[in-house]
Amino acid sequence: MAARLVFQKKLLKTISDRHFFFSRPLNSSTAASSSSPTASSISINLTTEKPEPITNIPNSSSLNLNDVEKIFSAVPTTKLLRASANLHMAAMEPMVDFGTWVMKSKLMDMEVVRDIVMGFVRHTFYEHFCAGEDALGTQNTVQKLYRGGDGLRTMLVYAVEYASDNVSCDRNLEAFLQTVETAKSLPPSSVSFVIVKISAICPMKLLERVSDLLRWQHKDPSLNLPWKLDTLPIFSSISPTYHTLKKPEPLTLEEEHDLQLAHQRLLKICENCLEANVPLTVDAEHTSVQPAIDYLTYSSAIKYNKDDNIIMYGTVQAYLKDAKERLLLASKAADKMGVPMGFKLVRGAYMSSERKLASSLGFESPIHNSIQETHACYNECASFMLDKIANGPGAVVLATHNVESGRLAVEKAHDLGIGKLNQKLEFAQLHGMSEALSFALRNAGFQVSKYMPYGPVEIVIPYLLRRAEENRGLLSTSTLDRELMRKELKRRLKASVF
What we know:
8-stranded parallel barrel; 8 strands; alpha/beta; 9% strand
């Protein structure tokens, strides 16, 4: 264990000494002190800090969020009105609480109530945040977003919950494969990524078991895991291991077989993505299962990421204290193996449950102690990746709703001479959220994607409600969009009257 810690510290020092680290930190006093309501990520997550009124938006020569006429130039007034109304409703926490209660109550067993509730949801929140119920509806939404003047790309995600057995895993696999086919049928470049959740194609209990064994091997490198394939570093010297307090039993033959099936499902999706020429991004999940998710992601990336063709992307959650170290270690190891690695950077999606679990076990939370520390970590990770792709292999998706992070990244990319349409750099936000930032980044000439869940209302709504419930205050942080939309609507009203 001691030898492992010494090695990792030396490796981190080597990375820094060789200027793999930040040539100019993507950080500022503004980012460090910001309590902006736009501090979020592509995963549905935010702090519960109350948003402050927006008085002025930081501006630079490349990223302009003050010219609302230009920002919303491609958005029809009717769409702007509906979006503004939906965001205002979604920002009312009591309304979200009530909606969550109704959706979980026995009232939904009554056909009349269910029809009314689902009808309301379908024509408000669902249409605002989701792409559609099926392939046809999704295709229409994607094409409107891409060709209808918005010029935004799509990250397609089939909104499915956790799987509990191989039958549900196989069913979810078919849905993900259909997602790839949908992406393949759309105009080239309109779909930037297909998104997959490993917990949808591998039973959750098995992910927990594999994660326990990987954590124990991190503590005790002498532990032999006969099923383990080549991978990249999964842990750093400060990664949390409190989930595994005693040595776990080896996987049974049945568990090893199920793990092999899960890996085969992921490889099948990779193969189809390779044929469709659409990259695949694996979403991050709870720290209890993230080691297994990273293991499957990295072992698949080693097989499919060749030359400059990066098919598999992993996700790093910057709200975790070990995020930067793990990113550096995995990136350096990938370079050494000749594997070009893509990463999606997010802030994080499971703040509430992570803190509760750590507290219940008597351990410190794995999440940064303040939102300022999370901002700083995100910006430093983004800076590292921008330096890296400017001078070598790899790619990055900067998934953020935070205006300051977006502005700093644009300035950094400009300083490094990274072309605005460089395939190695993508910005991303949730569909229906941070529209102003998305349009501003697009107007600055960068590639921008919207993370777009789709699927039947009955499947998608619980998916969205669970995320809203997990991260209190998410939708109340739409202050920026609501204020800018209101400003643009007033401008259009004055223009029509005078």
